[in-house]
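Figure S4 source data
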Amino acid sequence: MTRQRLYLYDTTLRDGQQTQGVQFSAAEKAEIARMLDALGVDYIEGGWPGANPTDSDFFADAPATRATMTAFGMTKRAGRSAANDDVLAAVLDAGTRAVCLVGKTHDYHVTEALGIGLDDNLACIADSVAHVVAQGREALFDAEHFFDGYTANPAYALSCLQAAMEAGARWIVLCDTNGGTLPARVGEVTRAVIAAGIPGERLGIHAHDDTGNAVACSLAAIEAGARQVQGTLNGLGERCGNASLTSLIPTLLLKEPFRSTLTTGVGPKALESLTRISRRLDEILNRVPLRAAPYVGASAFAHKAGLHASAILKAPQTYEHVDPATVGNERVIPMSNQAGQSNLRARLAGAGIEVAPGDPALPRILAAVKQREDQGYAYDSAQASFELLAREELGALPDFFEVERYRVTVERRMNALGRRISVSEAVVVARVGGQRVMSVSDGLGENGEDAGPVHALWRALAKDLGPWQGSIDQMALADFRVRIIGAGTDAVTRVTIDSIDRSGAAWSTVGVSPNIVDASFEALIDAIRWKLIHDGAA
């Protein structure tokens, strides 16, 4: 059977930037574009030229890509020609090989939002697309609110698509702008559009996730015959986000009926980079990676139950729908006070530590885990700290450095501008390679304001660790979580820290103490030790 080509269109740099709390710089957009290009997507929508300075700066110096760089804009305004519309001109001036124009296809939006006649809107669509094509560009028409428009007035919604196609649009993209259409309806309408004369090989789908069905809606449209799918990395997007390409791409490559009937620009080796790309995007945005994200999440292949772990050791496919390595992820066997030796050996094997069945160290490790969890530790969400505990029991924990003492001070004072501020400072004294090293740092964050005593400690601890400084400089702290265990004067603090590095690795460590700073410091030290071990430091 000849497989049909499915085209992947990424809109992270435009739709993704509409996510609440997300704002890319031009340099960050360029880095993300290069990652997308290496992954193998076919189109990269870089933004809306002229709409904001960042997008204009990006297009002024956009990276050269194999993927078709695309500028986004809207159809011309009524009452002027396409050649004299300044907004459309700014989009064309970006010089991209393709241009995607959004236009109304719901009659209610035409009359109420635009305030023009239905025929006038058809003329705006046709004239704008024809103008783009006349400039030698590939034209895409983004049919805004199409599914709602088709429900209200199918004949008019279809006439908008036909106007764009007859004007020369390469792609007609059905957009579920409000994100409220369900998968079965998306499939039904897509088939109706194809039956009405819009060929599937010129049809795309753009789904939003307001019902949690954006990926399912996209797959439904593809099954119905659409041959372009749009989405964003990690499902970024306005409101609840867009269809997530980090879920769509592996599903299309690994799952039937798509695997045997379709082909994309993403190959097996590129697919192995998906987890790293997903986590790098979160690092750029200073966001905590979603642990439960399909395929790429830290918990996507985590097996906590002892029964599951025992089966995984014998045959991984018993509880895994795909091999984690195909998407660059890894299997995790969490440790907790529910664990048995099957979990323990599987988790150790995952860390590259082979222990024979019946080894006397196994019950010692289990006893240590259970004793520590009684004290407030939680190793099911702090696998790196568990690995260090196990290595210590096995006599396989390298002695990279030893912290002799530390001191943290927090001062509340008035600054020179008369504003009340806090200032945190930390001193760490460590023994590294037989030498005594003292490091001092303040707690200033990226914005120049005090980020607190834990940040000061991290900066001081990571400032000078001698031969291992190169590994430490690649680390970043992604998240910091605090929970109070117990009540009253007997309560202790549990701190869990998520760390990441530039290779895309992610790991979690835990510390417990009546003192929140001390608990944090314990987790910080574990994070560094785990990183050094996995970097092969001697």
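Figure S5 source data
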Amino acid sequence: MINIKLKSTAILLFIIVLIQACSSTKYIADYQSIVKKVTIDSVDKKFEEQAYNYVQKDLRPASKLSIQVPLYNLFNTKNGRYKTNDIKPFGTPPAILDSTLVEISRTQIQKFLKSKGYRQAEVTSAIKVANKKAEVTFSAKPGPAYFIDKLTDSIPNANIRNLYLSNKAGVSHLHKGMQYDEDSLTYEREQIYRIMKENGYFYFLRPYVNFDVYGAEPTSKTNKIDLNLNVTEPAEGHKQFNIGYTHMIIAPNPDGFPDSVRYKLSKDTVNGIIFTDFSKRYRRNPIVRYDFLKQGELYDIRNENLTYDRLYELNIFKNVKIDYFRRDSTSNRINTVIQLIPQKVMSNRIEGEVPFNGGTVGFNLSNTYTNNNIFRGAERFELQLKGGLQSRIGNGAKPFSDIYQRDFSISASITVPRLMIPFYNPNLGGNGMPHTTFSSSYIYALQKDVSVRRIFINSITYDWVETKSKLHSFTPLNFEYRFGYLDPNVDAETVLNNLYYSTLLGRKDLTLGMKYTYTLNANKLNEYRSFVYLRAGMDIAGNMLQGISKLGGKKSDPANNDPAKILGLPFNQYMRPEVDLRWYKHLGGDKQFIARLNAGVAYAYGNSVLTGIPFEKQFFAGGSSGVRAWQARTIGPGNYDRGLLRSDTLRRAFFGLDQLGTMRIETNLEYRFTVAKKFFGATLKGAAFVDAGNVWNLRKGESILVATPTLDEQTVFKLNRFVQQLAIGTGVGLRYDVQYFVFRFDVGLKLKDPQFTGSDQWVIGKFLSGAREFKNNYNATHGPDTYRFLQYNFGIGMPF
């Protein structure tokens, strides 16, 4: 059904384009023409794209692949002409020739070339019209490029001159011998302005910085230019200012500060800050903590921007405004006024769904309540209730007369905008807002005549930003209590046919551990530059409970199925390090190469030496962000081959079960490029990739998927079999980038499949010759599993 809908939509769009694409000329007057092509000749390649941006927008023709004009024609034409009123907001109108716009474009392109150092540049325009279709050509005669010969400066204020010279090497783009470029002058002016505003010169303005340009006249016989930098001095001179007191004022409600009402301002100054809250909703300390304009310190615009950022990140104010005033003209202190307008504090969201599935019907309902200021300190509280029922239908039974499954969960979390550490109060807001999150959840699931599950999870997590590129997340407490109960009356055949899930449903254990994750350069992932990205983490559990159990004096023998217990349940003990390392190499423009290595190990020991790693802590390979030629959780572990399960009953029992392991190694090589910058209103990007990897078990007996010693041996990692156990795939992909979202489609092709042996692993040969026979033989020996050479992946966002 989905494929039919997609095909129907595609056919409809194709028909619209086919009918409307070439019909725009019939909707315009006889004296008008539609611009089909704009060309700019004789412009240096590095400036072509920038020069085209100076062509007036209404003169630029739409891309040949775009449906924007056909859509506009469909909704905004009447009686064979374009409508002049009641314009529908669909698509964009065609570019209609306008000689005034042509002349404006010509002048702007010429000015642009002059600004880039071609001081003698001249641009002419030509228009060709045939059958109401126009082609506009801009021809440039750039002339010689001008280069900077001398650089001097005139800065009468000694302090400012010293400040500029001490920072010049790190910020200036100007140097002798470079091609003259007005953008470089603008950049220099902006850098000087920034330096002044960062060093106390509050009243410094950009117009104080200007340049004398000598020898740049188009009639000059030489192509040399001399530049002199001026920083002019106002009548009162340039002064540095310190911060006086700060008055922080919160409006009475989200409507702001009424002009008609006068409020009494507080006069109590604490640590240089006067805090007045007309709304009576907020405590002082959690808010003033993020005022970085400290009394007595030199004014620095970075602290102003930091104050803006953190107060907005508190997520309780919809508007933040910072003003300054001086008590008298002779003072070198400026006082700060921070006006805060609160936003709506509480919200509630209700969601529901009615799932149908093979003779069953049900409903799921959830309610999420959010309070962004529950303890008057910008603490975010979220409470979610979820519940659902599933009922069998058919044989004349009424819906919900035979309810076989009930689910209920309640979860709550409180996020505080600081690190709540006993006996320690670090101020880590300089590079990002720190958070402490307390979360708790309870899950109840009943499957009639099969099982009952109860899960209780609690955690405390600290998140903080060391620098903009270095992020930390530490969970010192992660407690999970899982109690499953299998109905003793459930028949053996049901257990066998649901072997994997029966094991999970009957699981009884608890986990007490901690986690730490370090991330480097996550802020650069959407930039075209060369850098290394790292995400490394450690998850460790059970050591504290092991110590407590030993102090209790009760003996245990985990290796002989007698683990130590806490609260009557065995506890998990393991360590799980994982690393994601990537190298992003910028190849110019929109081209990029990425090499990635993702590896992890989950090692059970002590109290879990026999029971092994919990299900949710194991690794899988494949999927849209792994080895993309395989569906997620369908590779390995190792050389695992279901064909060795000679029993149809066993193969059915293991069919569709997640193929997991206690160790993973995946690597990806991907080349990214742009296919079309204007494709249906967005950018179409492409990728070519090669992926390799697998999951393994560290020891025998760690996988529920095995039924024979041979299968068990195949799942274990051995260095001398590493290459034989690698899955390798390749493929291509498309990314539809609409700025806020990237819609991704990848096609992966299997090259080497580790479930086979020897040369048979290179299944690409079978794909190219004898694919049908190969698949038929595989289906006969591995059924109900089937074989696919190609894997399609859809997703939102980049794979990594």
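Residues 215 and 221 are 9 Å apart (CA to CA). Residues 1-7 have pLDDT under 50 and may be disordered.
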